[in-house]
Amino acid sequence: MISLNNVHYRYEPEGIAALRGVSLEIKDGEYVALIGPNGCGKTTLIRHLNALLLPDKGSVEINGLDTKIAKHHTEIRSCVGMVFQNPDNQIIGMTVEEDVAFGPENLRLPAAKIKKRVAESLQRAGINDLATRNIENLSGGEKRLVAIAGVLAMNPRYIALDEPTAFLDPAAAARVLETMDNLHRAGVGIIHVTHKMEQAALAERVVVLNKGAVYLDATAAKVFAETKLLQQINLRLPQITQMLLKLKKSGLPVRTDIFDPDEAADYIGQLIKKK
User: Fold this and answer.
1) Cβ atoms within 10 A of the Cβ of 151, count?
2) Helices (H), ranges, 219-260
3) CA 59 – CA 251 distance, rounded (Å)
4) What is the C-alpha to C-alpha distance for residues 83 and 149, in angstroms, rounded to an integer?
5) What pLDDT score was predicted for residue 275?
6) E strand or H helix at 185, and its extent?
7) CB of 198 within 8 A of CB of 205?
8) Mind listing the domains of the chain with CATH numbers?
9) Residue 214, SS3 per DSSP
10) Considering the entire predicted model, what is its pTM?
11) CA distance 113 to 115
């Protein structure tokens, strides 16, 4: 379990308070979307999850390990993998295989085990075909998947991803999201920072931050039902939710807790047939 208890964090020397008393628990295998207006503390929060940042006040524990204790950091960072918004900030190797092997090599694992982990991680990320490719020749979407594979090579229980589909075309974004979904189905916990409400709605749970504090924390259906609260902090609803709400306002007895486009189309089609 990931546990944050009354976490405060302030950036110096600016003195900007980025987190203000955040308390949160994330269980093994959960898929959590983290959303909120710009500057609300999303990136700051997830950087606390693998001890890249340490709280000024309060505590962060990863499976019982306090992030403030330096000797825990290696184990914590193996447990919670981080995928940054810009994959170039964490890709080191010249080729895909070299980069994915970097983490296990730093753990000083035997060569045979490193080779096995690299192969498994490439498979799980769906990029076996890129194994020998030069990093410089990859697209933005492919680099995101390489970053995910590099994290997987550490055998994490959780992966925190900061805007993993930013600046990607729809096809590349869909591939990244599919990979995340597959990992979740395999039991890996996902913490997904996003400003795209349609993507947030895919998560089991949505946590909304505002001004460095938890503003809402519930299932996607319950969070996106709080239209007035979301509007107050300038967050829009997923497009499907907006459409369903308009249909409901027009007098149709529709559900508003459907977020998958195909499911929504089928649902509306069935309503039309009943008419």
Assistant:
1) 28
2) 220-223, 227-232, 239-249
3) 49
4) 10
5) 64
6) helix 170-185
7) no
8) 2-229 (3.40.50.300), 238-275 (no CATH)
9) strand
10) 0.89
11) 5
**What string of DSSP letters covers 115-127?**
HHHHHHHHHHTT-
3-state secondary structure (DSSP) of residue 6: strand
For residue 136 the two structure tokens come to: 């410089």
pLDDT per position as a tens digit, 157-192: 999 999 999 888 899 899 999 999 999 999 999 999
C-alpha distances in angstroms, 112 versus 74, 101, 215? Answer: 21, 11, 47
Task: List phi, psi (to 5°) of 82.
Answer: -120, 130
Alpha-carbon distance 176 to 145, whole Å?
7
228 CB neighbour count, 10 Å cutoff: 6
Q: How do residues 252-268 score in pLDDT, each as one tens digit?
A: 788 888 888 888 888 88
3-class SS at 141?
A: helix
Can you spell out the DSSP letters for 19-80?
Answer: EEEEEEEE-TT-EEEEE-STTSSHHHHHHTTTTSS--SEEEEEETTEETTSGGGHHHHHHHE
Q: 88 Cβ partners below 8 Å, 6+ apart?
A: 143
Strand partners of residue 84: none
Q: How far is 268 from 174, CA to CA, in rounded Å? A: 24
48, 160 in Cβ contact below 8 A? no
Structure tokens at 75: 């184990």
3-state helix, strand, coil in the chain (%, to 5): 45, 25, 35
